[in-house]
Amino acid sequence: MKQVSLVNVYKRLMPLARSLSVVLGLSVLSGCWMMDDDGMLRDRKNDYQLAREMPVMVVPEDADHDALGELYVIAEIPDTSLLLEETVGAPRPQPLSGNLLDEEVKIQTLGGKRWVLTNRAPSEVWPRIRSILNRNGLPTAYADASAGVLETVWLELKGDDAYKHRFQFRIEPGVQVDSTEVAIVHMRVKKGDEPGAWPLQSDDDEREKAMANMLASALAGDESSGTVSLLAQSIGGAAKVEIITPKEAEPYLLLKLDYDRSWASVGYATGRDGFALVDQDRSEGVFYVHYGDPDEEEPGFFEDMFNGDDEEQRLSVTYLIRLAKTEEGVVVSLVDAQQQTLERTETLRLLKKIRANLS
Questions:
Q1: pLDDT at residue 199 in the model
Q2: What are phi and psi of 327, to 5 degrees?
Q3: Residues 289/319, Cβ–Cβ less than 8 Å
Q4: 122-136, 177-191, 273-287, 302-316, range with the lowest pLDDT
Q5: Which residue ranges make up each domain of the chain?
Q6: Which residues are CB-contacts of 325 (< 8 A; sequence separation ≥ 6)?
Q7: pLDDT over 50 (residue 33)
Q8: First-to-last CA distance in the chain?
Q9: Counting Cβ atoms within 10 Å, is residue 178 exposed (0-12), middle (13-18) or buried (19+)?
Q10: Within a 10 A sphere around the Cβ of 124, how many other Cβ atoms?
């Protein structure tokens, strides 16, 4: 009886064993296909070197062009040879950027406008602001990463039973590299009324100020620094400041700001990094500055005591910084004390110093 049962078990297991052998055989064959001549898995890390450049796909004129486009657009590379400085001997080490150190957050005001400034890129600030709003019970009703706009839902604030409120946040690149400016607009509407368009200025300046203080404090204490939004890589548009190097003209700074902001920003830079403001004429759009190399050693005590007139000499006008309003923005250019153009490399060196200290 036991022999018969063993035979039955054997007959039942045979089909399973045949199926298993077929599966193992296919696995071995597929594994062989993945192996190279040495029996190892083929290394594909250098396959990109064999890639060929394909022609750009041409879309018919009657088709939708928006469906196709460059996923990662390569920006135009400027002629950087003009930005190189001639050095004698070993070049001096460049100071570390403030953006690589601790984060700085502050509130700036000018001409009735207020914004929160931080030395972090917009693509990093965008997700942090969204997180801060959610944590503080301010849900987002509208978000446009490409335009850098966030709008809250309608809110009912304590102590105000007659109005409903909402806030708009505009995140834009700052004048410094990898910096961000956040402007806030407050809007209120009587309950039951239909809301209109967003106002140019806040309906309640105190509520805007309170929101700016809350946001600045939250950004300064936020532990999620380092998170970056891939959807917000070009948030808020292009850079506000560029160094333009035309081939047939003198280099200049282009500030994509209003004139008041440009004047204040350049004025801030005239007192830093070797520049000293001697005089200014806003009606003519000119800063009269003295420039002394900040790397030069200062005179000693006795030399300074016996050469007291050197202070007046050191503060003589050496350069004129001119601002001119154009259709593209505000142009910042440089000439010497005799209003003659400078050497191209000298102009670029000084423009980069001004660029690095704009506010």
A1: 94
A2: -65, -30
A3: yes
A4: 302-316
A5: 98-232, 241-356
A6: 259, 285, 331
A7: no
A8: 98
A9: middle
A10: 20
For the cut 80, the answer to whether the pLDDT of residue 6 exceeds it is no
CATH number of this structure's domain 241-356, picked from the four choices 3.30.1330.30, 3.90.190.10, 3.40.50.970, 3.30.310.170 = 3.30.310.170
Q: Compute the residue count for the chain.
A: 359
Q: Which residues pair with residue 183 across a beta bridge?
A: 115, 170
Nearest residue to 167 (alpha-carbon basis) of 136, 191, 129, 202: 202
Given the structure tokens 């110093």, which residue do they identify?
A: 353
Which tokens go with 312?
């007046």
Token reading at 124: 């990093």
| CATH code for the part of the protein at 98-232 | 3.30.530.50
Structure tokens given for 199: 């106002």
pTM comes to 0.65
Structural tokens at position 11: 């007959």
d(CA 74, CA 79): 15
For 346, half-sphere exposure in the C-beta direction (CA atoms, 13 angstrom radius) is 11
